[in-house]
Amino acid sequence: MIPAQAQQKLRKARHFLLARNFAQALPRYQKLSQLCSAEAVIWFEYGNAAAGVRNRELADRAWHKAIQLAPQNTELIIQIGHQYQALREPDKARSCFAQAAAADPRGINPRISLAVLSEQNHLLEQARAAVEECLAIDPRDDQARYFSAVLDRRENKLDQAERRLRDLIASAPKHPYVRYACRYELAQVLDRTDRFEEAMRLLAEAKQIVGGLTDTGLLLRGYDHGADSARRFTQNLPRTILRTWAEGYPEDQREAIPPLAFLGGHPRSGTTLLEQVLDAHPAVAALDEPSAFVDIIEPEFNEPKELTNSRINTLRRIYIQALLQEAGAAAEGKLLVDKNPSPTARLPLWLRVFPELRVVIALRDPRDVVLSCYFQNILLNATNANFLSFERVAKHYADLMDIWLAVREWDGFAWLETRYEDMVANLEREGRRVTEFLGLSWHDDQARFYEKSQTKQFYSPTYQDVTRPVYTRSVGRWRAYEKYLAPLLPALEPYCRRFGYG
């Protein structure tokens, strides 16, 4: 029981925590942990605030204390496990989920969490074992039935996956996520077996369900405001802007950082494949969509005041520290590659803070990009709400690539475009071209990138695709769905022409 005199302090601390103002929340939780030292929930939230300011050691201590105080509180332990997942510490997350499962022999949620984590780490046998435990507890559980079908598809048992998914859909699952996810999953199976019209019908059903769960109009209005602002800002800058910025922030005033490259482009343009080819090089540490830029750099530019050189140096230092913390000790002394498709729209900010940045932009046939994005079942937010219709995907593509087309005309920075189709046609030739642009020589390990990929957890939705050698099935995939894309083709044609797609 939290004492009455602490309740108001807790409300204030939670206000800052929910607003993601972690710097204000942290000292308040530090005091609350002393006032209410036996309250597990306060220690849990204290850890969340510490994680928000990237103090992982303090977060770890606070969460450990919360588990010590409430070893049978399975929901709390599961939440801590998810926090570790967000910090990209899968081993600690797995330990939490296993402890929660042991504390609740009939618990579905900790076992499903274990299954999902194991599948993301390509540990399919462990994932299957966790799902089977769930089905033994409750054979009709929506999540377990759905995830069993996902594993079937991962194991290429497409007939079995299809049967499970059709049975699940017919049973009208009540779990909100499963209701639409099973349709997305079945659409993937149908696409792989050339039943394109039914795949489109199921995707439309899934998106209708998703759209009914939240105010997508509100999300899209927020997105449009930000996208229009970013485009206007970028297109209004002169071609010489980098020279102007460099004069005010000369090289001798910049804090030294390790070699750094940005790998961007529109989502589903082959960035994950290229990231893994680069990461297989012994002199490269490539990171899969880290949050450092969005968390550290981007918020600074929402403030009206001009950044000083001293502040830019601080941002450079904190950003690099965040990358190195995520990549681990093995990244020391290596070229750091931040693979992050969506922040391509913020390239002016990258180049303002990192004038020495090398930029690699992955390209793919815009028609294949739009189709592939439409197939994705990803967490709904203001950006991903665009993926609920072909028209909005095409708009998102235009929003992002218009910024790149403007920035690539700027004088004074090093950039390279690389096409997914060229990577698939000749991995070594195109991979060598990109590797040499980054100042390195091709390494034989890069041709076997999938061997290293099988041991890593990925955070891109395409994590399953880079654990095997390159394949050509996704090249020209849009032609099977041409009648659905037909209304968009005129809008995409200028980008096809600019990027060399006939």
Structure summary:
The chain has 502 residues and is mostly helical. It is built from 25 helices and five strands.
Shape annotation: globular
The portion of residues forming beta strands comes to 5-15%
Name of the CATH architecture of the domain at 229-498: 3-Layer(aba) Sandwich
- Strand sequence of the main sheet, in spatial order? 2-3-1-4-5
- Please describe the biggest sheet, giving its number of strands, its sense, and whether it closes into a barrel: 5 strands, parallel
Quaternary structure: single chain
What gyration radius follows from the Cα positions, in whole Å? 24 Å
CATH superfamily of the domain at 229-498, by name, is: P-loop containing nucleotide triphosphate hydrolases
Account of the 3D structure:
By secondary structure, this protein is mostly helical. It has a domain at 229-498: P-loop containing nucleotide triphosphate hydrolases (Rossmann fold, 3-Layer(aba) Sandwich). The chain is 60% helix and 6% strand. The protein has helices spanning 4-18, 22-35, 40-52, 56-69, 74-86, 90-103, 109-120, 124-137, 142-154, 158-170, 176-192, 196-211, 216-235, 241-248, 271-279, 292-297, 309-327, 347-353, 366-374, 390-407, 420-425, 427-437, 449-453, 482-485, 489-498; strands at residues 260-265, 284-288, 335-339, 358-363, 414-419. The protein has a five-stranded parallel sheet with strand order 2-3-1-4-5, sandwiched between helices. Helix 2 runs antiparallel to helix 3, helix 9 runs parallel beside helix 11 and helix 19 (366-374) crosses helix 20 (390-407). The longest helix has 20 residues, at 216-235. The protein is globular and about 60 Å long. The relative contact order is 0.08. The mean pLDDT is 93.
